[in-house]
Amino acid sequence: MARTATASPTVRAPKSANHLEQLTRLVNQTLERLLPRSAVSPQVVHEAMRYCVLSGGKRFRPLLALGACEAVGAPARQALPVGCALELIHTYSLVHDDLPAMDNADQRRGQPACHRKFGEGNAILVGDALLTLAFEVLGRNGTPNSLQVVRTIGQACGTLGLIGGQVLDLQAISQPRSSTERTLRDIAQLKTAALIDASIAAGALAGGASPAQLKPLRRYGQGVGLAFQLIDDIHDQEGLAQAMGSDNARNEAQRLIARSIDALAPLGARAKTLRQLAAWLAETS
Ligand code: GRG
Question: How far, in Å, is the centroid of ligand 1 from the Cα of 224?
Answer without folding.
Answer: 15
